[in-house]
Design a protein that fits this description.
192 residues, homodimer, disordered N terminus, DNA-binding transcription factor activity (chains A, B), 71% helix, mainly alpha, Arc Repressor Mutant, subunit A, DNA-binding, 9 helices
Chain lengths: 192, 192
DNA sequence: TGCTAAGCGGAGGGGGCCTCCGTATTGTAT
DNA sequence: ATACAATACGGAGGCCCCCTCCGCTTAGCA
């Protein structure tokens, strides 16, 4: 009905961009210190920004998590390719899963959100899943080709299982590694 | 200082006992319908009881969980002995773990609380842990003796891993069973 | 029937989630 | 330099939850 006022989308306002960064930084710190269930009001307070501003930018906690962790999740995926180059097939897969577990522990409850999200349909998590899948599938298929992983296993099952490891709270790193070792044994083909 | 008025502890009053039962029933239903994070006020409402009454009886959510699930947890433990009698060592262990997973799925988030509690120090959960440990250890040691499980594995690690399976939300039963199969393979000794 | 320990229930303080809208700021057009 | 939208800000307020505290009620003994 009304005339489309300006077809060209205006660039983000300077103050908006500044506050966005402040919020993501504050959230990153707060999540690291107190876990991902820090109250959003606390985060707004830390960022020196009104709660309204936070909610305008990030409609819910998940949106904020996405912004905070997008880089790190990407880096987890990227690591897969390094392992694929430098290590033998099974070792590469094992190393990647181990780094996945280690990451999950250090970031506390992120792994919970993440693993739960492997079956969700948020925009972001979808594309995240694609990345993880691509990286993991590379490692898995190599390991299968080398005859070191049973061919019928599905990547997503493995990921879910590994993700579950970090979900029990307060997992010690060596504890988690023991659990992962059991899983890794479970991947190998039965003796002929 | 004052005279101990009545050394004999009076029996619980009838209304108190009645309300206790009402609360546990209401909680059981509510937990089944909406998961264990149903608000306690909602539960009191369902029970037709004041919130104060709930809190006097159950100082926190965990206490209520305990009351609701004590029977069922016991029955999970008991099942172990049945399996031990009727099945071959490894199959008995597998069956028990499978029933554990199945139980966890049906009761939604109870498994989360439970598995987390395997490393906690609440009175109740301690004794629960003892029961689980006793039952599980029986099955595990038989399976080890039969040479079907690697001897260095610890029950608690296995339980934690299996518990993790149900933690990802919305796990389909057959999905969960696939994950459990991986774990079960991981228990077996490597080929000689 | 009377009395008191035991039990009841809900108001209220603290806090988190999220929305809404009056006010302030930015950047562009004149 | 100035005016004026478009954009963004921020916090009050509604709603819900957790949990505590204490004046009122009731069961059950004597």
């Amino acid at each position: 009905m009304g005339s489309t006022p300006l077809p060209s989308t205006r660039p983000t306002r300077a103050d908006a961009a500044r506050n966005y960064d402040l919020l993501v930084s504050a959230a990153r710190e707060a999540f690291a210190e107190h876990g991902t269930d820090t109250s959003l009001e606390e985060i707004a307070r830390r960022a020196g920004v009104g709660i309204g501003t936070l909610y305008r930018r990030f409609p819910n906690r998940t949106a904020l998590l996405e912004a905070v962790y997008v880089d790190e999740i990407q880096s987890v995926c990227d690591r897969a390719y390094g392992f694929a180059e430098r290590l033998e097939p099974f070792d590469a897969l094992a190393a990647w899963l181990r780094s996945f577990v280690g990451y999950g522990i250090s970031k506390k409850s992120l792994a919970v959100e993440l693993t739960a999200a492997l079956g969700k349909d948020s925009q972001f998590f979808q594309s995240c899943k694609v990345n993880v899948q691509e990286a993991g599938e590379l490692l898995l298929s190599k390991a299968k080709a080398a005859g070191e992983v049973r061919p019928e296993l599905e990547l997503m099952d493995i990921m879910r299982l590994v993700g579950g490891i970090t979900m029990g709270r307060d997992m010690e790193p060596d504890e988690a590694n023991r659990l992962l070792d059991i899983v890794l044994c479970g991947l190998r083909p039965a003796a002929p």
